[in-house]
Amino acid sequence: MRTNNKTNNNMSMVDSFEKIPCEIFSNAKEGSRYAAKEIAALIKEKQSKGEKCVLGLATGSTPISMYAELVRMHKEEGLSFRNVITFNLDEYYPIDKDAYQSYWSFMHRHLFDHIDIDKANIHIPNGELPKEAIKAHCMEYEQMIEDAGGIDLQVLGIGNNGHIGFNEPGSSIFSKTRLINLDNSTRVANSREFQNIAKVPRLALTMGISTIMKSKRIILMAWGFKAQIIAKTVEGDVTEQVPASILQQHNNCTFVLEENTASELTRFKSPWLTGQIEWTPKMIKRAVVNMALKLDKPVLSLTAVDYNENGLGDLLVEQGDAYEINLQVFYLLRDSITGWPGGKPGAALPTHPERSEPYPKRCIIFSPHPDDDIISMGGTFMRLHDQGHEVHVAYQTSGNIAVTDEFVTRFLDFAVGFEDMFGMDKHKSEKILSDADKFLAGKKKNQMDTPEIRSIKGLIRRCEAKATCKYVGLPEGRWHFQNLPFYETGTIEKKPMGEEDVIVTMELLRKIKPHQVYCAGDLADPHGTHKVCLDIVFESLRRIKAAGDDWVKDCWVWLYKGAWQEWDIADIEMAIPMSPDQVMKKRFGIFIHQSQKDSVPFQGTDLREFWQRAEDRNGNTAGLYASLGLTKYAAMEAFVRWHY
């Protein structure tokens, strides 16, 4: 579903905040289709005139679904790229063209190898040249763009620090194609492609901001956990410290966003400032909570003056007394806090987030990776079990690519030693260890692990997950390893959700018939695994409901956040408090996942260990509740209900 950029009522108000037009969609797939459709229309228009269509193309995870849609249009609708000339934004330096992480490889893998473009019309900065040849190469690249008639449409993504292309903060508005040093935050963000930051090149070739700004049309796409930088870019001042903000000065630029990425824009964060709205209880809660946090006041201490001075005068006119509004919001916050995530048995509590009956409940926790259950909702996991509910955990993927090579040889050494210790035949394990040592010693930077090594890595994570379940107290048979097919590619890039993924999940749900389902609603996972896992559960439940299964009518779905972020406090519908002892017990549960401790491959932009992220986030949630005037707990885990 597409969100209109403006309505007649609030057009001028939204314009006063947003300095770049934004098209907002319910998900990245729809946004990608929108961008692909515009590109296809331009290609066809140019074809009808016998003209070349010059496209500026981007890399990274953002445009992948757009390229997939263009490939589909080519194969199913006959969209031809014979008249297309392309210029890519950037490339790592130095890097071999055939390296998996090179943007040359990326573009051929996702687009060029699947369409009818003339290979002579493909232009990508060359990361293989000697350094002394780079300056001339950059000047030649600029000249080729000019000779092609300039870029008709430039596709962009955006970095968490506001970079476009590899133009890092501080890049001049007059900059052209050049060799640059990558910001450390960019290298950390891109380390997911290289296993660890040490392997990420420190330099890159990039079109300059001046080069980008000469494009006749610009589309910037952004999905996932980039709401803060999008708001800064679209609504903030133009500054070279946020390179993307310079796009405010382009006369034909549009941002294509998903709702999650647009959530910090004023029209969503504070819609009462952009025009008339309907004051629902949820909207009142959001407005009052945001104001209280901004003023650093408990909710019950807010005054009519605070309301009037913070754009909420209309709320006072409609609802009346400020203190009555304060009480309404305070009670909503108070009633979201419970020590009974499965409902308090035998208690009639109409404002409780969960039902008292049935008791005990059958609960299933869907954990995208083998440690998300304990990291993201370990305290709630333990409470559910301790309070007598039948708790199951479904580990959706093997998580094998997140195990370092050192762990493989360490555990194979143990297997050989174990067999030797007890007089067992160790020849087979010795051979596996020898083969693994040889492979890993000669393993190239971009090489996929052998099936045996991937299996061993998966086994390591399964053993850790099983040990965590036993630590919580679950009996045998309560943990389920799904090994969903979409994940098992052996590389960072995963397949999209497939039919087999949904069938496997539906079978498990129908077997358990849960009253509660817990899923990772964290869409900011840098590799998209959480998003695919969530979509699989959603699709499975929709199909089961459509099929008329009786049990699904009593099944509630609660979403938790993963290791990357937390729910906005105004959105939280169930908050589970934790004592200091429970915080420590959760920490020790996370420590069981030794393969993920200390050095974590593919950990995104956050360098903290998972237990540190979890404690900081849970402590921050508790602190926010306390600052709003609620009881101060050591930590809190937060959930939002999904209705289907």
Question: How would you characterize the overall build of this protein?
Answer:
With 644 residues, the chain is α/β, with parallel strands linked by helices. The protein is 41% helix and 13% strand. It has 21 helices and 18 strands. An 8-stranded mixed sheet has the order 1-2-11-10-7-3-4-6, with helices on one face. The two termini are 17 Å apart. The relative contact order is 0.09.
What topology does this entry show?
Blueprint: E1 2-3, H1 11-17, E2 22-25, H2 28-48, E3 53-57, H3 64-77, E4 84-88, E5 90-93, H4 103-110, E6 122-123, H5 134-147, E7 153-156, E8 178-181, H6 184-190, E9 203-206, H7 209-213, E10 218-222, H8 227-235, E11 253-258, H9 266-269, H10 281-295, H11 304-309, H12 313-319, H13 322-335, E12 362-367, H14 372-386, E13 390-395, H15 405-421, H16 427-441, H17 451-472, E14 479-481, H18 499-512, E15 516-520, H19 529-546, E16 556-560, E17 574-578, H20 580-591, H21 610-627, E18 635-642
Parallel strand pairs: 2-11, 3-4, 3-7, 4-6, 7-10, 10-11, 12-13, 12-15, 13-14, 15-16
Antiparallel strand pairs: 1-2, 5-9, 8-9, 16-18, 17-18
Helix pairs in contact: 2-3, 10-13, 14-20, 15-16, 15-17, 18-19
